[in-house]
Every structure is written in structure tokens, then in C-alpha cells.
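Risk register update: the risk of archive-format incompatibility is retired. Evidence:
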Amino acid sequence: MKRTVFFEKNKSLGAKMVDFSGWEMPIQYTSITEEHNAVRNAAGIFDISHMGQVYVTGPDAKTFLQYILTNDLDKANAGEGIYSHILNDSGGVVDDIFVYCLEENRYLVIDNASRRDEDLQWIAEHKENLNVKINEDLQAAGLAIQGPESISLFNSLLDEPIQLERFEIAKLEVKNRFPLVSRTGYTGEDGLEIFGHPEDLVQIWDWLFEAGKELGLKPCGLGARDTLRTEVAYPLYGHELDKDHTPFEAGFGWVVKLDKGKFIGRDALIKKKSEGFKTRLLGFKVEGGGIARPGAKIIKDGVEAGVVTSGTFSPTLGYPIGMAYLPAVTPAEGTRLKILQGARELTAKTVKMPFYVKPKFPETKEVLK
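Archived output:
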């Protein structure tokens, strides 16, 4: 398995390591619940060096990206980014990515670890005769700081507070190191991603942990990352997103700009949209205990109606939740379901997503029951 530059630090912190898409990554350090709560209430730090960092450059870089993206890159000026999907010819999702415009004719694409090799091959196959270069930085590392204290924590390393808005990116000076820093996130909380040279990020990792002692900073693994993103109904490729479902079925029609011009999969989406989609992604709450895991069959009105795409216990809400593709006519709230989890039959009902809504004020934490 591949290892990130933080492997030895992860091991020294007691991380339980697992195989994740060919990378030896931490699933947890102490407990998933403790790490999850640190992000919701203070700050957590994630090793995201397994994610791909691909630079697309050249005179035709924007033209090329517009052709392979569902979202409209015209919305991203220098220092700004967008979330988008890449589709196949039938409208299925090849991957979901972030694209940042660093400067004119120079873009940074962040893709999923599970799709790195496939994405690079797919992108290269579709550049045709355009004047564009595609280079993956195989040596780059990445960190993510997430949680309500994450910005204050990072600011403690800077001479001046950051000025980044959501979906913005900039090269910042951190004690004479110059990483790229973006403000997006995958947890439902405010936070930053830091990309750069491995040696620089290892040093920044140490500085963050030293500065974060009093703030309650915790190292967080893939387990907490999954519970956090599930609570806010963020998709994971291979679960909610795949080549057999369109962005519309996954509830991400907002990343599709059909009026921006030609892009791969556009014609298929228009056709399927006019015909009506047969399935859609819905959320559910398990009642009476038990966790529905991915792949579990869902029974509705006595008939198999779908399978669980993601399922976990929600530390914030205090009960099991999950997502699944169900018939498009299924109401988003109150539909009774049975879920076959191994030898157990769980009872559940559909609930609106996201399951967790970030509170506006700490004293008025609001969740969807």
C-alpha cells in the first residue's frame, strides 16, 4: 500500500491504519465519536494527502475543463474554485471534484483517492487536440482542518488573519512556508485545506498541534470523516455517486449548468431529465436500534426497492442514519422502510436531508429530528 508523508506521525499518535483505495490511512486514533465531536465543537485535523492534486495548464485549459465539467467555470476567477462532477457519455458520474483557478490558464483539480488513476486516464483521453497540459503532483501532500475553531487556529500561525471566503484559494505565508490554502470542507463545518510540499506540510502539522492544544484540536481519521459527511448528506464516490446514477438522481442538480454550452454527458442528461428519473437519493433514520450498512437491501411495501449507499450511527443526533436510492415517487419524509442488515430486519423511515444543520449560534444547536 502507498503511504502518505504523515504515516509515521499517524502511527505515533496511535492511529489504527486501514487500506483505503490502496493507501494505508488512519481510520481512527482514539474513537470515531471523540474525533467527530472534536470537529463539531472545536477542531480536527485530517491527512488528505491521498487525494489527487492535478494541474491543468495551457492556453486551452479553461476550454478543456468547461468541456469535461458539469458546473460553469466562468464562475471561478483567479483565486476561486467550484465543486463539479465529471460525467460519462450516458450522464453517469465519473467523479466529483474541486477545481480552483490559480491564475489565467492554470487550474488545480482535487479528485478522490479512489479515482486518481482512472481520472487521470479519462482526462488525458478527452483533451483531444487542445493545447493543454495535465500533470499530477505525485509528491504533494494535503491537510484539512475542520471545525468552529479551525480558522482561529490557523490564524495563530499567520502574521495577518486569512481573508479567504468559501471556495477561495490562495498561496499564504506560514512562517516562511508557502502552501496553497483553500476554504471548502467536507464535514459541514468551516475549515481549510492546505496543499503543498511534504516537508512544509509536516512542519505545519507540528505547528498546528502545538497551537491547538488549548483549543482541543484532535487528529481525525476516515471514520470520523465518514460520520461527519453523512450527517450533512455529502456524497462519497462509489456510494452515492457512481457511473450508473446522474447528478440529478443524487440530488446534485445544482452542479449541472445545462445552459453553459456543450459538455460530456449533457445530451444524455437532457434526454433523461425529459423522460423522468426512476430513482432518487433519499435519507432515512433507523428506528429501534441497529445500523444499516452500505449494500443492505431495502424493502418498501413488501418489495425490494433499493440498497443502502451509506449508513452509520450519528454521534451528533444520537441515532443511526443513512442514504439510499429509492423509487423517485417515494416521499422524502415519513415513508416506512424495512432494511435487511445481515440476519436482522431493521425498521426505518425516510427523513429530509441534510440530517444535521449547522447551528447559527452554539447555544441554539439545531438538528433535524
